């Protein structure tokens, strides 16, 4: 007698399949970002791409070693921030940074040059006051006043001696009217370079040289001119290319203030470590810095000799913070950079400073 044929139960298999599907979705939903939609890689989900064109101060082509070093520093910054799925690629003279999603600010922060200097503050003014003085300037001119106006330009030199004294900047509206033509001729080199058919590198080098001539002069009259004409709302041609051995007229990072600074006393190469911290007493985010031996000794001497004065922390030619020195900082002690930082921006800046500036 032939054996009976077994009965197939498709319902059992369908039920088992359903259990497996539910289990898989449960694993997806209850782990990771709690989303039931699988997270795509950067090759599928797309991302934000920022292309940085390497530029050297003298306009020459960057070396492959410099580009490779810059790529490694940016990759280290990526790891420090915990940004997963990012890519840093060298493409000719460009560095291409790609990050998941649409956060272009994050990609740009990774490519920040990050040249840090600490400079003494010799004068400052807020942009609103400068502009208000400029618009009010036409009222004083009168036939009887030329003789009294003549000595006014001499006051600025005295005003620069104290951080909080600002009369030298208040005189700006008068000096530009008297000497605009000679001073504004300094930016001429970029125009000549482009008209001669030179390449972009030469034009950029000429633009940097012109900005240095105006904003890094030791002449008080030229410094006044720089303060009066500096536009903090546009891209800075001097970004990261200021000469640390010369004075500097610089904008604050938020564009609301202009500072006259002395030569650098410490540069970013002296940073041993940097971390973002939350100051619970002041309810603000700060960056804690510790210096190497030479930088630590220099900072201790400077703070001891300049209590009550300001020191500016400049990053890529902009003033990030300009605190007043409250007391001497002993050698070996950490110091803090304060500013309008969020938790994220403080972490990004600390990460950038910790892993070094780009060699471009």
What features would you describe in this structure?
Pfam families: Sec_GG, SecD_1st, SecDF_P1_head. InterPro entries: SecD/SecF_arch_bac (IPR022813), SecD/SecF_CS (IPR022646), SecD_1st (IPR048631), SecDF_P1_head (IPR054384). This is Preprotein translocase subunit SecD. The protein has about 350 residues and is α+β, with helices and mostly antiparallel strands. The protein has a domain at about 40-110: 2-Layer Sandwich (Alpha-Beta Plaits). About 40% of the residues lie in helices and about 20% in strands. A hairpin with a 2-residue loop joins strand 2 and strand 3 (about 95-100).
List its traits.
single chain, 360 residues, alpha+beta, Alpha-Beta Plaits, 6-stranded antiparallel β-sheet, 3-stranded antiparallel β-sheet, 19% strand
The overall average pLDDT, rounded, is 74
CATH topology descriptor of the domain at 42-110: Alpha-Beta Plaits
Q: Number of helical runs?
A: 15
Main CATH class of the domain at 42-110: Alpha Beta
Oligomer: single chain
The portion of residues forming beta strands comes to 15-25%
Distance between the termini: 90 Å
pLDDT < 50 stretches: 140-198
């Amino acid at each position: 007698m032939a054996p009976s044929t077994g009965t197939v139960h498709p319902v059992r298999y369908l039920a088992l399949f359903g259990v497996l599907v539910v289990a898989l979705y449960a694993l997806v939903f209850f782990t990771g970002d709690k989303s039931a939609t699988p997270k795509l890689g950067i090759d599928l989900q797309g991302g934000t791409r920022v292309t940085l064109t390497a530029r050297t101060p003298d306009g020459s082509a960057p070396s492959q070693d410099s580009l490779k070093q810059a790529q490694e520093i940016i990759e280290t910054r990526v790891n420090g921030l915990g940004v997963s799925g990012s890519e840093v690629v060298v493409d000719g003279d460009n560095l291409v940074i790609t990050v998941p999603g649409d956060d272009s600010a994050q990609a740009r922060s990774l490519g920040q040059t990050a040249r840090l200097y600490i400079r003494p503050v010799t004068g400052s003014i807020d942009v609103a006051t400068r502009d208000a003085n400029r618009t009010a300037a036409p009222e004083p001119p009168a036939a009887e006043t030329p003789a009294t106006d003549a000595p006014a330009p001499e006051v600025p030199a005295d005003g620069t001696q104290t951080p909080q004294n600002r009369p030298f900047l208040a005189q700006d509206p008068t000096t530009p009217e008297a000497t605009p033509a000679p001073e504004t001729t300094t930016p001429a080199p970029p125009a000549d370079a482009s008209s001669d058919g030179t390449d972009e590198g030469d034009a950029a080098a000429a633009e940097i040289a012109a900005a240095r001539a105006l904003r890094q002069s030791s002449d008080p009259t030229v410094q006044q001119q720089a303060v009066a004409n500096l536009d903090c709302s546009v891209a800075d041609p001097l970004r990261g290319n200021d000469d640390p051995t010369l004075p500097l007229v610089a904008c604050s990072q938020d564009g609301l203030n202009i500072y006259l600074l002395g030569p650098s006393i410490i540069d970013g190469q002296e940073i041993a470590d940097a971390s973002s911290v939350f100051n619970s007493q002041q309810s603000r985010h700060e960056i804690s810095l510790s210096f190497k031996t030479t930088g630590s000794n220099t900072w201790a001497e400077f703070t001891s000799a300049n209590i009550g004065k300001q020191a500016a922390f400049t990053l890529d030619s902009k003033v990030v913070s300009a605190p007043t020195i409250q007391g001497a900082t002993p050698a070996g002690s950490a110091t803090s950079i304060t500013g309008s930082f969020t938790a994220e921006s403080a972490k990004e800046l600390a990460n950038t400073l910790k892993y070094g500036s780009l060699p471009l």
